[in-house]
Fold this sequence. Notes:
InterPro entries: Flagellar_FlgA, FlgA_N, SAF, SAF_FlgA. This protein is mainly beta and 227 residues long.
Amino acid sequence: MKALAIASLLVAGQVAAASTQPVQEIRDSVTQFVGAALEPGGRYEVVVAQIDPRLQLPMCAQPLQAFAQSGEIKPGRNTVGVRCQADKGWTVYSVAMVKAFKQVAILNKSLRRNDVIRAEYLNFEIRDAGMMQAGYVTDASQVVDKQAVRNIPAGSVLNRQHYAEPTLVRRGERVNIQSGKFGMLITAMGTALNDGTEGQRISVKNLSSQRVIQAVVVGSGQVTVNF
């Protein structure tokens, strides 16, 4: 009789285990979801938080569905949900910490405002993207020949807020005005009334006619206007 009671307890335990969603499967769903959301070829470290092994959820009759609470997986702390959409559905949340390592541009010398950034001023180092402000530079072509908009100390991770297109025309300087129509090119001298970068429209005073016109900056000391 005693043996029968023990056997009944074992069977009951097996039935309960079979009807409960394994916690490890929930954690695996989080890990797989995060891995699939990361950009291929990158360098990452992913740590998924342990789920309380005492959690008792009904076994899901449908494949588990994982999702990012914020809508995307990004470097840093991510809250990831796992849901069961069967009749007795449920949702549980876990945390995934993601470190994404990127090769970024580091200044090897200090720059002053308006300095032009040269390739030899850059080193590239591997850094944790989650510890950097968005907009970091990953390719020299993004920043070489751009102009610093503030003083930047050596050792800084270059960011898009640090630079802008170089100023090719400065307020008060003489510029060459070019205008073309039907294949004819007419040139005149003028004075820039604004600073301007390539492609920017600025006001220019024609020194011959004394008229103020709108012209597009096309190069250093060069503007063009179409009549």
